[in-house]
Amino acid sequence: MDRRILVVDDSDPICRQLSELLARPDRQIKVAQDGTSAMEWLLEGNFSLVITDLRLPDIDGLEIVREIHRRSLPISAIVLTGHASVDSAVEAMKLGAYDYLYKPIDPMRLDLLVDQALKDRALRDEVETLRRRGVSRKVLFGNLLGQSPRMREVLARVARAASSECTVLIAGETGTGKELVAQALHQGDPVRNRGPMIAVNCAALPEPLLESELFGHERGAFTGADRQKAGRFEAARGGTLFLDEVGEMPAGMQAKLLRVLQDGKFERVGGSEAISVDARVVAATHVDLEAAVASGHFRRDLYYRLNVVRVELPPLRDRPEDIPLLVNHFLQRLEERKYPRRRFSADTLSRLARYEWPGNVRELEHLVEQLVVTTPGAEILPEDLPDHLISTREEPFSLQFDLGRPLQDITDELTERIERAYLVRVLETHQGRIDRCSEHCGLSRRSISEKLRKYSIDKSDFKPHCVRQRQLALGD
């Protein structure tokens, strides 16, 4: 989407110079040379950013920022001035200005700052749109949410697999939403969705109990079996049987499950009557089954039976662009349960996007609920986050990767993660100073700025408060 920028300065040469500096194919630049005209433009046009001089012929730039704040206009502001003043800098920031620059303007710094301001505005607009729509992008299936490229691939694969009768294996780390995928497959099956979906956690029961749980038992089959009991395969008749954590299934049960999948029949424990299977089998695992097969802990033939269609769920750290969508979905659900209404600031969402999320979506959901309960204000700010999230500065790095992906894809991804982690540490060392980071890295300022844009890194996150105030006054 094109972004509209309004430049406000009473100097015609400065307006032309800024328009040329800011020109991009995806930007529309408009110019106003007094505050009154600027306010008319801002009220009539759909602007994302205003860059205004502090001193204007009629009203000053602070008044423009104040009016934007008073009217709650979805417009970010950058204030420019040739007259440094700590008081005016602090006042501009209190009124909600994105930043404050001292003339003469450093073109490189202005370019980076405008990119950051537009990216911040895009995030805020996205959050507000999702809030107004009630997360209307919750499409395709149930509670499966995602707009990142990898999640769009997952959703498309689930959509295709749902209408078939084939067995599906869902792989992914704990907390990524494997049961939600199983529910989506069941709901999307035009035949099976009329029947029940029955779930069994294969890691929760020892082998004798798991066998009885899956296949049922006859009266007298073992001590305590005082009546006949139908198993989960029978309970799932006409529907879907979800075998969660199938990678933890004991070896003896693996052989029995394989026989059922091959023959389409089973017998209750202690019984002799063959009962036909009339349920679609969906399995899930957080275990690397290929490695388990190689080590002899999982049967190769059973793996092939289960892995007819594979759905690989990415960890949350690999799809941070889905975090605003998920957060607003969880907030909406909590509001429906009569929890207090809360919203997450753009800075808070940015901090969440840089966290590793070892517990994945489940951890995010629990965090949202915790913050809604414990935060006194309507807006959840970075300082409201737990300590381990407040101190988050860099993207986590891990050598875990998917052997099913091409080598070049993996090396490109790991290279980017190493580069991003290195940049974050350098920024932290030099408190966000681009010139010093440039010297440290042996790269030009432009190269550093381009990499920061590429990885959505905001250098202001690394500036201490006292340094930030001094830089506001000096225009550094």
Please characterize this protein's 3D structure:
- The chain is 47% helix and 13% strand.
- It contains 20 helices and 16 strands.
- The strands form five sheets. It has a five-stranded parallel β-sheet with strand order 2-1-3-4-5, sandwiched between helices. Strands 7-10-13-6-14 form a five-stranded parallel β-sheet.
- The longest helix is centred in the first third of the chain and has 27 residues, at 107-133.
Through-space gap between termini: 31 Å
- Total helical elements: 20
Rg value: 29 Å
Q: What characterizes the major β-sheet?
A: 5 strands, parallel
Tell me the overall shape.
Answer: elongated
| Multimeric state | single chain
Structural class from helices and strands?
alpha/beta
**What is the strand tally?**
16
- Low-confidence segments, given as residue ranges, are 133-141, 392-398, 465-476
Helix content: 40-55%
Instruction: Output mean pLDDT.
Output: 82
Strand content: 5-15%
Read across the widest sheet, the strand sequence of neighbours is 2-1-3-4-5
